Amino acid sequence: MFLSRLFRIFIEPSLIYWASVGIAAGILRREYVQKAAALDTGTNPQQIDSTQVVKIIQQRNALKDEIRNDGNDLIEKMAESRNLKKYGNELGPDYNYLYQKMREKHPDWTPEQLRAEIVAGATRTNEAASEGASTLEYIGYGLLAVLLLRLIISVWRSAKGEGFLNAFHILSCWLMGFIGSMLGLVLTVENVSEQHLVWAAIAAAAGTGAIFVLVWDLIFGFFVSVLNKDLAELRKKRGF
């Protein structure tokens, strides 16, 4: 009984939240890959001048910013931190950085060839990152499937006439836990140093989610007890 309650209050809210994070990561990554591949690079990349290449790189970085803003705050912060260390820019490398790296890699290439390769690279994405996002998405769907199975079993085992109430209780706890977990993570990402960010965010999401569930559990229990009391009095008056 204790372990079951512990799982429902501390573990389930976090699982619901992180499952949604994983699913969103996969969906947003696919959107990013599709939009990056569809960037307008012109009809003949060999004839593009540096000004046009700069615009294409800016479009690619603007796309990164758009996708990250739609995603999880922790993932966004980690990606920005990585790029800041590697490129000196939260969104990624600019034209000057890419041109210098490309010239070091291909010293015998002409400026036109270098710019053409930079433009081609703007439409490509990291396959390893895409595979990782897909894995997170599949894990997310798997977690949701397990939790939905747990919901179905719990409702099936409910006493006669209490299935709907039990289902509502579980789903509402999941919702409260999701909101609490999201709030805890957002506040942590904004206020915790990078060194302890990941574990602090995970702990804050679990803790805040549990607090929301506990509070809701008390409120729900109070209303159920009042409802049961009223129903008992009604049955007594009607002679049941």
Describe this structure in words.
With 240 residues, the chain is an all-alpha fold. The chain folds into 2 domains: 16-128, no CATH class; 139-238, no CATH class. The protein has helices at residues 2-37, 50-70, 73-87, 95-105, 111-122, 127-156, 163-191, 197-238. The longest helix has 42 residues, at 197-238. The radius of gyration is 26 Å and the shape is elongated.
List the main descriptive attributes of the protein structure presented here.
mainly alpha, 8 helices
Q: What overall form do the CA principal axes indicate?
A: elongated
* Strand element count: 0
Strand content: under 5%
Low-confidence stretches: none
| Class inferred from helices and paired strands | mainly alpha
* Succession of helices and strands: HHHHHHHH
Number of domains: 2
Average residue-wise pLDDT: 86
Which percent bin holds the helix content?
over 70%
Query: What is the CA–CA distance across the termini?
Result: 32 Å
Radius of gyration: 26 Å
The number of helical elements comes to: 8
Please give the largest β-sheet: none
Concise account of the structure shown:
With 240 residues, this protein is mainly α.
Write the SSE topology.
Blueprint: H1 2-37, H2 50-70, H3 73-87, H4 95-105, H5 111-122, H6 127-156, H7 163-191, H8 197-238
Helix pairs in contact: 1-2, 1-6, 1-7, 1-8, 2-5, 4-5, 6-7, 7-8
